[in-house]
Amino acid sequence: MLEIQGLGRRFGGVAAVDAVSLTIPAGQMVGVIGRSGAGKSTLLRMVNRLTEPSEGRVLFEGRDITALRGQALRNWRTRCAMIFQQFNLVQRLDVLTNVLVGRLNHRPALSSLFKRFTSEERAMALSALDRFDLAAAALQRADTLSGGQQQRVAIARALLQEPRVLLADEPIASLDPRSAKIVMDALHALNREDGITVLCNLHHLDTAREYCDRIVAMQAGRVVFDGPPAELTAARVREVYGVDEAEFEEQAAAALRRSAAANRPEPVAANAA
Ligand SMILES: Nc1ncnc2c1ncn2[C@@H]1O[C@H](COP(=O)(O)OP(=O)(O)OP(=O)(O)O)[C@@H](O)[C@H]1O
């Protein structure tokens, strides 16, 4: 169980996340929605401590994550993997090596980075790639893959961390609809087959409804809706956000396009997903 208790983060005068409390049972798939600037990324990043909270706590199985330091914090970050809108692969490395990076935190000391990966680790990486239909691409450079393929490599890399929790920050925002479906299916499979708790920031409400057990809607740092997908009706969306669903999604998508353009990595070949 993951417990977020009164969690908050201020940046200067702005409360990016404000007194958020959520209790997330093990194995739940949670979709977090909200406009640009609502605090979705900051919330996820506090769960693995990429961003430090200003107040509140995060507990995992009763253990205070917010108090972890040093090796204990590194261990938590291994068990709480994260994937991003822009995939964050090392573009010039081959796919297999990118996936093997997910094992590095399992190694005892920095010196072990310079040793070769074991045959067990390579087998694990190949099996993770095979699970997402990417074994044939194992020796290709990451930058030869389509966006949908790169995101599946990132998911395979996360899987090698043997996580208990997976944080996904707008994982399909840069993908065409077909690739987006394949990536969401992959996340759903990890959730259902491996029992990994998934927290996923999304801006397509129908995607959140289709894949998630629970939807948390944020507005100006606060939770304004928390419930099952069936309760997030079109009328409720209008009540919470003051616009209809299509307008809400267009606003969110436009903001994501702007932020992706501002951080665009190397160009990605437009292969099929
Ligand atoms: N490192 C930072 N420094 C200053 N302000 C920040 C920082 N990170 C986030 N913010 C601010 O906190 C608020 C919430 O940002 P956050 O990125 O969490 O929102 P979001 O819902 O994920 O939106 P988006 O999808 O656009 O990233 C915004 O006002 C943002 O400008």
TrEMBL record:
Gene3D superfamilies: P-loop containing nucleotide triphosphate hydrolases (3.40.50.300)
One example GO MF annotation: ATP binding
Protein's name according to its UniProt entry: Phosphonate ABC transporter ATP-binding protein
Matches recorded under InterPro entries: AAA+_ATPase, ABC_transporter-like_ATP-bd, ABC_transporter-like_CS, ABC_transpr_PhnC, MetN_ABC_transporter-like, P-loop_NTPase
Gene name in the database record: phnC
Keyword set, alphabetical order: ATP-binding, Cell membrane, Membrane, Nucleotide-binding, Translocase, Transport
ABC transporter domain boundaries: 2-245
Classification via PANTHER family: AMINO ACID IMPORT ATP-BINDING PROTEIN, PHOSPHONATES IMPORT ATP-BINDING PROTEIN PHNC
